[in-house]
Amino acid sequence: TFMQLVNVTVANNRRKDGGEIYGSGIKIESEGYLICFNSIFWNPNINGDVVVSDEAYAGFDYCDIRDGYTGTGNINADPLFVSDTDFHLIPNSPCIGIGNLADAPTFDIENSPRPLPSGTNPDLGCYEMDIAVMQEFEIIAWDVYFYPNPATDYITIPTEPNEAAKIEIHDAFGRLVMQSTLHLNQNTLPVAELLAGFYFLTIDSKGKRVAGRFVKM
Q: Using CA atoms, how far apart are residues 5 and 35, in angstroms rounded to an integer?
């Protein structure tokens, strides 16, 4: 059986009973034949993320694999996800911009163009991050300032501002798509009209600017 995996993320995979897993990222048995590149396998188990039986073949290139794996461009480094449940990459992730452009998909799982910026190498994993855009924002915390994330109709900022706060939303290309002002005791922002995708939300209040990211479903 032949299988090809490109720009996939397998992360935080574990048994519910806490038992050991052999091949917590992927296990190829029997006469399986796998080609994989531009992917991330990072799972919290004591055994390796990749297990290949003697009768099978697996080729991994340009991948981040916990405990490592022989292949071109592979690394063994914490991918630095946003959180244990959000597998977007933060700006200093070692997985950004180190993939192989040849045969890589032109869009990521959220339909964002790949690579970003254009003309660079793609990121590893299922999400493409535009590091040029991300570096424009002072990222103090990714998951503190608003919820739900992903969002559908609205975003709630849990800390009500003590004074009016200016809100801006930029898309993955850095384009301003929404501006609003939250007044005292107001902390809900409608986002239903935004297209599905990845966005940056910035909050300007009391002369300080903080930012985070969210996904609009």
A: 6
